[in-house]
Design goal:
Helices cover about 30% and strands about 20% of the residues. The strands form six sheets. It has a six-stranded antiparallel sheet with strand order 2-1-23-22-21-20, sandwiched between helices. A five-stranded mixed sheet has the order 18-8-6-3-19, covered by helices on one side. The chain has a four-stranded mixed sheet with strand order 4-5-7-17, with helices on one face. A hairpin with a 2-residue loop joins strand 21 and strand 22. Helix 2 runs antiparallel to helix 12, helix 3 runs antiparallel to helix 7 and helix 3 packs across helix 8.
Length: about 475
């Protein structure tokens, strides 16, 4: 009896919401995905005019799928609305002791509040500010107050066993320079060897052998460099005993080394000394004193941060932003659970129910995050008519112009006219945002591919964006 009732319910649901068939996709779009070896049940596509009440194309729009980095659209739109485009993070510096003739008779305390974008340049500005305020020498230690976030232990190898990749850096209340180190390679001035420089030049990182300079193509230069990295929480080493081709010119290799406190300690030692300061103390955890800050570092405005998150698909910045959402409704410390609740409340405020929606860290670097194409399309429609429309839309990569789309659709008519967020994981490819056609009509485009062959989907996704630009309006008129 129960099975018959379930079957009947399935029949009713299927009648009210028939499963889209291949034929519902325009023939050129079907052919592009078929040529990529992608079955149609692994693809979800929604195309809709921003001012329309219903989609022009809805293929599996209500099927929850892994969106990869396209999930950043949810995080950034929520942030722009809940925090405001002009929101700024604040990092405070305190003196825990008297300042006597330029010497701090105690510890220097730095309290982080989750700033996603403390770059080397901003850190240097802060160090110069400390010196300008009369701080010359520190007799005590560097104390880090990271209590604004309460996080589970982060395993950088957990996602894909690539713990040194900067995209696997975990969030932190005091994130500095994305906890990343850049190794720069170039032939030396006499063209008989290779110079390897390290930025930032942290004292805890030992640099070993440089690669030999050789002739030949620059095809797989990283493999030929034969890099060996050793990364411990408090110390790291890098050596490159292989070769480097002259034809490579200048190359960069970004690696995540050390733990967060040791990285900040190295940044402070390096750049406080550069500013003329004197510090030789240790680093430890602690809490900021209940006094006024000695100096304050303000972040760039949120709209600038959102632009980096979406155009460059920066995962750790997205995770910092996601955790900051927790502060919009609940007191510190921010936790992933509070951030999830904040996003769910925000969706509820927009009366937007997304079947199977799951958000874990807000960056899309997840195997559990789920989103439907139709749910995201509705969210994009809300964003297009909302108060933060311009800040949100201009944060997206522009086809053939910048960000993750700089080298895509370069010969397409949609070049410069498609504002999109890309998504890429093993087994996942995604594309979502807006396409503005030749008449100025703005279209919403959302496409997810979840399949072992998803890596082949990029040309088909680009073809879909081009189809929207060139043919969506005519296709809509032909269906009236």
């Amino acid at each position: 009896m129960r099975s018959r009732v379930v079957a009947a319910l399935v029949l009713v649901v299927g009648t009210l919401h028939p499963c889209p068939a291949e034929a519902e996709l325009p023939r050129p779009v079907r052919r592009a995905f078929a040529d990529a070896g992608l079955p149609f049940d692994s693809v979800a596509i929604v195309v809709q005019r921003v001012d329309a009440k219903s989609p022009l194309i809805d293929h599996q729009g209500d099927v929850p799928m892994n969106p990869a980095s396209v999930m950043k659209l949810v995080t950034t739109f929520a942030a722009l609305e809940l925090l405001g485009p002009g929101y700024r993070w604040q990092t405070d510096v305190y003196l825990d002791g008297p300042l006597v003739d330029g010497t701090l008779k105690g510890n220097l305390v730095i309290k982080g509040r989750g700033d996603p974008k403390i770059t080397i340049e901003q850190w240097q500005t802060l160090m110069r500010e400390l010196r300008a305020r009369g701080l010359q020498r520190i007799e005590g230690d560097l104390v880090l107050d990271r209590s604004a976030f309460r996080l589970p232990l982060h395993d950088a190898a957990l996602f894909d066993n690539e713990p040194l990749r900067p995209y696997n850096v975990g969030p932190d209340a005091l994130l500095v320079n994305f906890k990343s180190v850049r190794f720069a390679f170039a032939a030396n001035a006499t063209d008989n060897g290779v110079d390897v420089s390290v930025e930032p030049p942290l004292p805890q990182i030992a640099l070993g052998a440089s690669p030999s300079l050789v002739d030949g193509p620059c095809d797989d230069w990283r493999r030929l460099a034969s890099a060996a990295f050793i990364s411990q929480p408090r110390a790291a080493a890098a050596t490159f005993p292989g070769s480097f081709a002259r034809s490579c010119g200048m190359r960069d290799w970004h690696v995540a080394l050390l733990d967060h406190p040791s990285y900040v300690h190295g940044m402070f030692r390096t750049y406080f000394a550069e500013a003329g300061g004197d510090f030789g103390g240790a680093v430890r955890e602690g809490r900021a004193p209940l006094t006024a800050p000695f100096a304050i570092l303000e972040s760039p405005p949120l709209y600038d941060v959102v632009r980096d998150v979406n155009k460059l698909s920066n995962n750790v910045m997205a995770r910092q932003l996601f955790l900051t959402l927790a502060t919009t409704a609940e007191p510190l410390p921010a936790t992933p659970e509070k951030a999830v609740a904040a996003v769910q409340r925000w969706l509820g405020q927009h009366r937007l129910a997304i079947p199977g929606f799951a958000i874990e860290n807000g960056s899309g670097l997840s195997r559990v995050e789920r989103l439907t194409a139709s749910g995201l399309a509705r969210l994009l429609a809300i964003a297009n008519r909302g108060a933060v429309r311009d800040e949100f839309a201009t944060s997206l990569a522009v086809a053939a112009t910048d960000g993750t789309l700089e080298r895509r659709m370069t010969d397409a008519y949609a070049a410069g006219r498609a504002l999109l967020k890309t998504g890429s994981l093993e087994g996942v490819r995604a594309l979502a945002g807006y396409v503005i056609d030749a008449s100025g009509t703005r279209w919403i485009l959302v496409a997810f591919v979840n399949h072992p062959n998803a890596a082949r989907a990029t040309p088909a996704l680009d073809h879909l964006a081009e189809w929207v630009f060139r043919q969506a309006d005519a296709y809509a008129r032909g269906r009236r």
